[in-house]
Every structure is written in C-alpha cells, then in structure tokens.
Amino acid sequence: MLGITLLVFFVTRLVPGGPMDRILQAGMAGDSGSSKGDSKEAGALSPEQKERLEEEYGYDKPMLYAYLQWLGVFPRESQLSKYEMKSDSIVVGLNPKQQGDFVLRGTDAIVTVILDKPAVNPEDEVKIGKFVYKDTEKDPRDDGWSIRVEAPLERKERQARRDKKEVSEITTNYVHRVVAYRTEFAGLLQGDLRRSDTYGDTVWSLIISRVPVALYFGILSTIIIYGACIPLGIAKAIGHRSWFDTLSSVLIFVGYAIPAYALGALMVVFLGARTGWFPIFGMASQNFEELSFLGQIVDVLHHTVLPLICYVISGFAMLTMLMKNSLMDNLSADYVRTAMAKGVSFRKAVIGHAFRNSFIPIATGLGGLITIFVSGSMLIEQVFDIQGFGKLQYEAVLTRDINVIMGTLTVSAFLMLLGNILSDVIVAFVDPRVKFD
User: Fold this and answer.
1) Which of 388, 373, 356, 359 is nearest to 419 (CA)?
2) What pLDDT sits at residue 118?
C-alpha cells in the first residue's frame, strides 16, 4: 500500500495540470485579458500569493518529504507568519541590531524579533537573539511556535524552481526573512486526507457520501452474478455439448464482448431518450421527495435497471465458464468415478464430492468483492450520471484534484489488499487439503 501511494503521489507531482498549474494559468489568463494598467486587478498572482499556494499544497518541500507529510509521519507547517528585514539595514562593514514587530497569523499577538547576529551581506547567516511577545518577555516558542530565517539566495532558488528558471535569471532583490509557524501532524495516519480543491469538502466526507451508491450496485450485481452463474456453470458442465450449453455459451460471450459503458450509452439512447421506458440519468426522479415510501422504492428500482444490466453483463462469461470447466475437471477425476462405482448417485457425486473442489478457483476471487462493493465503475456511473465512488475518482482525475485522487486511491488500495488476504482465508476454509493444525 505504501508503494502504491508513493508511486501515485510522485506521478501527481510530476504530471502537468495540478492545482498550482491551474491557479497560475487562471491568473495568467486574467492578466492577458486585461489592459496594462489593471493587470493586478484581473487576477495575476503576486509572488507572495504563489508562495502561499506552494505552502498549502506542499510544493515548497521535496517530494519525498511532502509524501511523508501526507502520510502523517512528518509534521506540516501552519499559520505561517513572515517578516521582511529592512534592506537598508544590511550595510557592509556595520553590524547593526535588526529588530521588527509583526503579527502572528491566526492570532492577535504581536511579537518582536531581535537578532544576535544580523546580516552584513545578503549571503550571511543570521542568528535569532530574541523572539518575544511585544507586551511581555515570554517566548512564543513556549506556546508551540517555531521560527527560522530564510536567506535571499534560498528565496531566489525557490522562485527559480517555481518559475522553472535558472537562479541567475531571477532579478528580484530578496532580503532575509523571518518566518514563524506552528507544526502539526495531519496526514493519513491521523485520519486527515485534507480537502477537495473542486468541492471544498473534506475528502472523507466525499468518500462516505458516495459509498452507499457503490454498495447498492455492488451487492445487487454480486448477488445476481453469483446466484445465476454458479447454477448455470453446473448445468453447462452436466449438459456439455448439448444445445443448451452451446446456446448459453454464445449468449454469455456476446455479453462479455460488449463493453459495459458502450452498452449503457446505447440503452440510454434507445431505451431511455427515444422510448422513454427508463430514466436516463441519476438514481431518483425530481419529485422523489413527494412520493410515498413504496413509490420511492419503485422509483429507485426503475432507475436501477439499466445501470445494473451494464454491471452484470460482462461478469457472466468468466464466472460461468470458470465454474463449468472446474466442475468438468473434477467430474473426470478418479475420486468421483470411484464414488460412483461404489453406488453413489450422479447427483450426489456432483453436489457432494465434485462441487466443493470445483468452487476453490471461484473462492480465490471472493475477497476481491470488497473492492467491487465500494469502487463501482467510473465509466458506467459517468454514462448514467450516478454519483458513486467511481465517478468521484473519474472527476478527480479530470480536474487534477490531488487530495481526492490520493484519498480514493488509498481506500481502493487498502480494500484490494484486504480482499487478497480474505481470499486466502476463504480458500483455506473451502479447500479440504488445507488443515489448521
């Protein structure tokens, strides 16, 4: 799971079109559409605004460090307050005491910074002497604040990375800057997946709001597929090469060959828009709240028919043929022939002996149903405009909503790995060769 999240985190940082790029492009578009005199009013971002965006999305840190912050292993910086040292106090040959007052962000407190080792040259390191509240001698660091000093060269290098330029091309005359901030651990390990850039809600609330729809279709499709395919596979194995076996094989493979989203688009056009037999989008009608309880159930079921067909049609072929082929292999095994030679009926030999061993290959995929229950299908949900978990993932990728991408991926990866473990446990219970000694 760490490998999956780390890989995707790096990919979201490297590909273009992330939140920083979108905001910067919006600012450039506003600037290009304005006259020369009103570019600032049109939305062009100042260097300070760009820095705040970098700090908000973690782009001011190396990628591995930012990933560990997202994970909750390293702390995040919050409530950043900055104080620009006066450039006229940097005088070659002198060693003046630099001091200044500034307001701590998020509070009404005013602090005073006094340097023990001021800057004589822009390249010099400086040392903080005092960092105290203005009205008292109390150190804000006792209240959880931290402090650092950013040198001019460090600030130029940061701008060069942001603007994708060489340091020598940066013409801004930076000065030393004092930065006060608080630290907090707020990541995956603390249950914090941040907020969505698109919706403004927390990622957890978005995921929780979409899970019921995914569970609804996941449970229904699983019941239908397994409830129909297992008996169908048994019947096909018993009647191998009969007209029933041939006809059912043709039908299920035709269904397997049709992409679910393409079938959904055809049904929306012909069974929804043209004939009006079924709704073409959503999970409820506009007057849903006005309907009776029974009417609401009927309305939801009416909206369920077309997407549910798309969910189940491609799953019939694989499961049915897996059940059939596995059962045929076991029916031809020696232990089944021996049982029948001892007087066991064919029906009992199939159900009592061969079926359990034939179910082992199917049991290996039962754990993966957890992922199906939650993940849904992003393309089917997009075709029918169903606000499910899959569509949330799809929209997050389209809008480059990094926090939602990472949050939904984390949930999916966790469920996939949990499903693999459950599959091993289920197989251990089903397979008679596995003994718990």
Assistant:
1) 373
2) 73
Residue 251: Cβ within 10 Å count: 12
Scan for tokens 């104080």, then name that residue.
83
40 and 88 in a single domain? The answer is: no
Q: Which pLDDT band holds residue 94 (cuts at 50, 70, 90)? A: very low
Which DSSP string corresponds to 35-56?
Answer: -GGGTTTTTPPPHHHHHHHHHH
Alpha helix locations (H) across 89-242? 152-163, 203-238
Residue percentage of the chain with pLDDT more than 70? 88
Please indicate, yes or no, if residue 242 is contained in any of the structural domains: yes
Report the largest interatomic distance among the alpha carbons of the chain, rounded to a whole angstrom: 109
d(C-alpha 115, C-alpha 130), whole Å: 7
Cα 34 to Cα 27, 40, 44, 47, 433, distances in angstroms: 11, 9, 10, 19, 76
Q: What does the angle CA 30 – CA 33 – CA 38 come to, to the nearest 5 degrees?
A: 75
pLDDT at residue 171 is higher than 60: yes
- Would you state the structure tokens that stand for residue 408, as one six-digit string? 């939904």
Q: How far apart are CA 155 and CA 426, in angstroms?
A: 57
The per-residue pLDDT for range 358-397, each reduced to its tens digit, is 888 888 777 777 777 666 677 888 888 888 888 888 888 8
Tell me, yes or no, whether 192 lies in a domain.
no
* Cβ atoms of residues 73 and 82 within 8 Å: no
Cβ count within 10 A of residue 355: 18
Range of the domain at 52: 1-75
Query: Following DSSP, what letter does each residue of 206-240 receive, concatenated?
Result: HHHHHHHHHHHHHHHHHHHHHHHHHHHHHHHHHTT
Three-state SS for 349-411 is HHHHHHHHHHCHHHHCCCCCHHHHHHHCCHHHHHHCCCCCHHHHHHHHHHCCCHHHHHHHHHH
The rounded distance, in Å, linking the Cα atoms of 101 and 83 is 8
Q: Is residue 36 part of a domain?
A: yes
pTM of the model: 0.78
Residue 73 has pLDDT above 70, yes or no: yes
Instruction: Identify the pLDDT of residue 88.
Output: 47
Domains contained in the chain, number: 3
Contact 322/362 with Cβ under 8 angstroms?
yes
- pLDDT greater than 50 at residue 279: yes
